[in-house]
Structures are given as structure tokens and as C-alpha cells.
């Protein structure tokens, strides 16, 4: 039997969820709470396998409650069950330790399946939430493409000279500039290429056909 605890401030929703879960032979609702504070106080006694957590709770929010649950009882899987589907709440909830994110319009059968999935190590999400997570990931962690790297003629000259093994002093002499000017160009090159060393800058410039 999978032990479930519900945290939901709306009584009609809370009782409805408890009734639904109680009808399954594989689940047992050990307790239900209207706020995260009471749930946290009884967490060690309830020992839930899966915790259904609303976000908009009085007092401690569901996101902060999730974080505290994972600190106190890391083995408990937290599945967010909410009406909120904005990027901020999704991102914060997953970062707090939630393994799943479901909307309250999830069909009863899918909710029961999602709980079992979470208990077995899965990450159940409403389909449109999963799409938002993918989009959020792509937007935040997309590496810069070649077309986004723009180096000036002077930076190109410095990079080419570095690739030929020349020292900063030799580059400065060949360009008729001060050594500090060469260092300025190199700092800009590092920033644009997202590297931290001369060898990495040259390697990436060659790989991306910049020189």
C-alpha cells in the first residue's frame, strides 16, 4: 500500500481527494491537512510515501512546504497538485524537490496512476506542464549558436595570432598597440566565447570557424 498525505486548504477538494484515493486498493490516505505547518509537525508519524501538495496554502506555501519535507524526510515524494501553471511556480516547485507537477483538472484515473508512478521513481506531469518544462529548459540552458558569436576585426587578429603561438607582447608589437590593449581584446574574446583560457579560446574559435 502506498501511503498518501494530502495538503489542500479547500475542504471540499481535500475531502474529495481523500475519498478518491480511498477507493483504490493500492493507496491509503493516512492523513489530510489544510496547511503545511500541521503536515510538517506530523510528518515523522505519518511517514507518507507520496505527498500531494497544493501551492496556494495559508501560511507556508506549498513550495516552501515541499522544500521542508525534502529536508526532513527525503524519501517522501512530493507531487504538486495545483491550479497554477506559470513558469515561475513550476520552476520553483521542481527546484524545491517536487518530483511531479499536476493540475487539479487531472482526471481521477490519471491522478492515481501518477501517484503510483511517483512512488516508483517517476516524475508525473500534466502534459501541458511537461511541455512548459521542456520549453523552460530550452530557453534557460540553450547554448549560444555560432551565429550568436560576433568578434571584431581586431579580436579576429588577436585570436589568429594566439593560434600561431605568439605571446601577448609579440601580438602587441605586430598590432602596434600596448600590451594592455591586447589583454582588453582577450578578455572580450573570453566573454564572447564563454571560455576561461587561451587554449580554450583558440580551440573553440577553430571549431566554430571563427579563424
Secondary-structure map:
Elements: E1 2-7, H1 11-22, E2 27-33, H2 36-41, H3 43-46, E3 50-53, H4 62-72, E4 77-82, H5 87-96, E5 100-103, H6 108-119, H7 127-141, H8 153-163, H9 168-175, H10 179-193, H11 198-207
Helix pairs in contact: 4-5, 8-10, 8-11, 9-10, 10-11
Structure in words:
There is one protein chain. The chain is an alpha/beta fold and 211 residues long. It folds into two domains: 2-141, 3-Layer(aba) Sandwich (Rossmann fold), CATH 3.40.50.2300; 146-207, Arc Repressor Mutant, subunit A (Orthogonal Bundle), CATH 1.10.10.10. Helices cover 54% and strands 13% of the residues. It has helices at 11-22, 36-41, 43-46, 62-72, 87-96, 108-119, 127-141, 153-163, 168-175, 179-193, 198-207; strands at 2-7, 27-33, 50-53, 77-82, 100-103. The protein has a five-stranded parallel sheet, sandwiched between helices. Strand 3 (50-53), helix 4 and strand 4 form a beta-alpha-beta unit. The longest helix has 15 residues, at 127-141. The termini are far apart. The model has no long low-confidence stretch (mean pLDDT 89).
